[in-house]
Design a protein that fits this description.
Layout lengths: L1 E8 L16 H13 L5 E3 L8 E10 L9 H6 L6 E8 L12 E10 L12 E3 L5 H11 L1 E4 L14 E13 L29 E9 L6 H14 L4 H10 L14 E7 L2
Parallel strand pairs: 3-10, 5-6
Antiparallel strand pairs: 1-3, 1-4, 2-3, 5-9, 5-10, 7-8, 8-9
Helix pairs in contact: 3-4, 3-5
Length: 273
């Protein structure tokens, strides 16, 4: 019997999704848990690989198993064998020919940032810290340039062996959110006339989270992290909309922004039509 499951994981401790010789992978840990639950060697195939340190909220996998465990109970059984940073969220029977990788039609990744003068330790494991304001309007203008069918060679990291770098990006959305307010101690009346050294209401701080979501039919090596880095450079004023157009037209990686760290990247959703 073939099953389809949705997996979530915090990727900091792993060398990525795929089994590798140089460290522990999410695939290895999940397959070991499945093998314990079903009492037979069980392998699984994912919608695609995620790199070392990348997280997933909606990775999709398929596997074959013979079990009397009801579908809705399988996640409970599997999660009992998994560490805290990997969890099966959903499991259901699938068609015998279902393939999590080859049948995927579109994927959404989200790169998460937070803008704050100082680091926020509770956000740092899953967000990239930007200590200066960003021009969100300019970033959204540049994001529209990236949408559509393009040769995305300028957003491909070195080391890729892919020959065809044409992809379709269905949408790039940039959404901001509020950061928790900084708790302030009760003012001391004796210090009423002492000027504050830190103005927490300074609008230039622009304290917020920024989610850059990219939906496409496929992605090149580090493509979303480079897109996010390019849009951050636009927000900083280091690049303009025309610069992004030129990078796409030329395919020149040096004209795009830097590759942002893996910790901010999340695989959100895989869609199967």
């Amino acid at each position: 019997m073939r099953y389809r499951a949705v997996i979530s994981y915090f990727g900091a401790a792993y060398v990525g999704w795929q089994r590798q010789l140089n460290g522990l992978s999410v695939q290895q840990v999940l397959e070991e848990a499945l093998t314990k639950v079903f009492g037979a060697p069980t392998s699984c195939t994912a919608s695609g690989r995620t790199d070392a340190g990348v997280h997933a909220e909606g990775q999709v996998v398929h596997f074959d198993a013979e079990t009397s465990i009801p579908d809705e109970k399988i996640p409970f059984a599997v999660n009992a064998e998994l560490p805290w940073d990997i969890s099966m969220l959903l499991c259901e029977r699938a068609a015998d020919d279902f393939n999590a990788r080859f049948h995927a039609k579109r994927k959404t990744y989200c790169y998460r940032l937070y803008l704050s003068r100082h680091r926020r330790p509770l956000l740092d494991p899953t967000h990239e810290h930007i200590p200066i304001p960003l021009d969100i309007t300019a970033m959204r203008d540049a994001a529209r340039v990236i949408e559509g069918v393009h040769d995305f060679k300028c957003f491909e990291a070195a080391g890729s062996v892919v020959k065809n770098t044409v992809r379709e990006v269905y949408g790039v959305r940039i959404v901001t959110g509020s950061l928790p307010t900084i708790p302030m101690p009760t003012p001391d009346p004796a210090l009423a006339d002492v000027p504050m050294l830190l103005n927490l209401t300074d609008p230039r701080e622009f304290n917020c989270t920024v989610d850059i979501s990219v939906t496409g039919n496929g992605f090149l090596y580090n493509m979303v992290r480079i897109i996010a880095g390019t849009l951050v450079y636009v927000g900083m004023g280091k690049l303009g909309v025309e610069d992004v157009k030129n990078a796409l037209d030329s395919g020149d990686r040096t004209l795009a922004g830097k590759t942002l760290p893996a910790k901010g990247l999340h695989l959100i959703e895989v869609v199967y039509d």
